[in-house]
Amino acid sequence: MSFNPYQNQIDQLENQIKENQALLSDPELGELAKQEIESLTEQKATLEKLASDLESSQEDGPKVGEQPTNCILEIRGGTGGDEAKLWGEDLKRMYMRFADLLGLKMEMIDDLIFKFKGKVRSDDEEFNAQFPTPYSVFKYESGVHRVQRVPTTEAAGRIHTSTASVAVLPEVHPQAIEIREEDLEWQFIRAGGAGGQSVNKTNSAVRLTHIPTGIAVASRQERKQAQNRAIALEMLRAELWEIKEEERLKSEGAARSAIGRNMRAEKIRTYNYPQSRVTDHRIKESWYDLPNILEGYLFKVIKTTSEAIESGKDLGELDSSED
After folding, report:
1. pLDDT digits (tens, 9 = 90+) for 5-33
2. Max alpha carbon distance in the chain (Å)?
3. Mean of pLDDT over the chain
4. Are residues 167 and 80 in the same domain?
5. End-to-end Cα separation, the chain, in angstroms
6. What is the pTM assigned to this prediction?
7. Domain total of the chain
8. Are residues 264 and 145 part of one domain?
């Protein structure tokens, strides 16, 4: 029998259903118990379907022992207040446009978190052969992306510097990373934001904390709690896989590969509007084509950056000098 990462959650739901069934004859609590049973039964059915889907080995899904193919990309606004939030939205649009040019499928997980799936099918056959999967395309995009420009609210025309961080997480097979139920702390809250009144009626949003590492992930996009549970578990699995992979690369002496991927807290790229320039500080390379890059034409940037990092080229210390 294959590993089912949802079994403990299914067992918990079954226990809750039994507890509510015992209250059905209560004149005061019977109706509430009935409604709760309906909700719990629906959650249980969703989790059982997710468990069944794991065993069907979807065509574009990960296999045990294989390198990841699909990936989750998360953007967070950094320093710069409202301008940083706007910059985060600009990065979101850039990556979504690029994914469209690549022919990838996209699933929204949250406002600035999305999953890329499928096989790369752009008009550039050479690029497709070199970067056949979403993870191979985006894996070196993790890090702090800085923008230098004049905000629309800046009356004096002064250039402001804002940042947003990008994290790229791989989709990995459930059996590739062991997650013990006793190491998990689940929190369920009401989802906020768009979606109408129905999105806020139940505690559908999920926050999941991995106690040993302190890693916390959240999912609130789906209206069903069970679906958000599955997404949160997938994101946690990816975070833990990444830690394990970094340790493996370092132990094997693949220092450059490890440095190239582990840049979440470091400034890796600057987008300079006055000079129409994009600079990657890891490889000390610039492209004077900012408008097209922001429209999603990242082919040269991705190719040059990946080749430089993976070639074992001595990149030296990360170039974090101001522009």
Report:
1. 677 778 888 999 999 999 999 888 899 99
2. 75
3. 82
4. yes
5. 57
6. 0.70
7. 2
8. yes
Q: Does one domain contain both 10 and 116? A: no
Question: Measuring CA to CA, how many Å separate 192 from each of 61, 131, 169, 198?
Answer: 30, 37, 24, 10
Chain-centroid distance of CA 50 in Å reads: 19
pLDDT digits (tens, 9 = 90+) for 61-107: 555 555 678 999 999 888 778 899 999 999 999 999 999 999 999 98
**Which residues, 6 or more positions from 238, have their beta carbon under 8 angstroms from its beta carbon?**
68, 72, 169, 170, 171, 172
- Co-location of 50 and 104 in the same domain: no
Which band of pLDDT confidence, cut at 50, 70 and 90, is reported for residue 283? very high
Rounded distance between C-alpha atoms, residue 8 and residue 180, angstroms? 10
CA distance 296 to 102: 10
With beta carbons less than 8 A apart as the criterion, state whether 205 and 190 touch: yes
Q: Is residue 229 part of a domain?
A: no
Do 47 and 135 belong together in one domain?
Answer: no
| 77 and 166 housed in the same domain | yes
